[in-house]
Design brief:
By secondary structure, the chain is an alpha/beta fold. Helices cover about 35% and strands about 15% of the residues. Strands 3-2-1-4-5 form a 5-stranded mixed sheet.
Length: about 140
């Protein structure tokens, strides 16, 4: 009897070779997708534009009130000094109802004062809240 020496194949050698080209294509497409989607989320504040003027967007001044909070914690309603309790009372009595409020807050004011003020104004059924910023 003759025994033939069959070459034993190495299982791990033949079966571990996978075609990686499909996987690389998918990874490449995902990479391109992420790069493109990230470029659309950039901020365009650097773009200077000369916008046309329009009188249509100007609101009624009688429906607008300005609330200011100074660095020392003083509250002002249309340049008249008030305290936080008076602001709460005005809000509870719906003095600010259907009005546009511009809130000017000094940058030294603690964040807690800002949040409390916005919370009080929210209860007063205001129409719109604008945050004043420095140009």
């Amino acid at each position: 009897m003759r025994y033939s020496h069959k070459r034993q194949r190495n299982v791990s050698e033949n079966e571990s070779k996978l075609d990686m080209s499909s996987l690389m294509d998918i990874v490449f497409i995902l990479l391109i997708f992420v790069m493109v989607s990230m470029s659309f989320t950039t901020d365009f504040k650097w773009m200077e534009m000369d916008l046309p003027e329009s009188g249509i967007g100007v609101g009624n001044k009688k429906d607008e009130q300005i609330i200011s909070i100074k660095a020392n914690g003083d509250y002002f309603l249309d340049r008249k000094k008030i305290n936080f309790e008076q602001l709460k009372e005005f809000s509870e009595k719906n003095v600010f109802q259907n009005k546009t409020i511009t809130l000017n807050v000094d940058k030294q004011v603690p964040y807690e004062f800002f949040i409390k003020t916005v919370g009080v104004l929210k209860k007063g059924n205001i129409q719109k809240l604008n945050l004043g910023v420095e140009n």
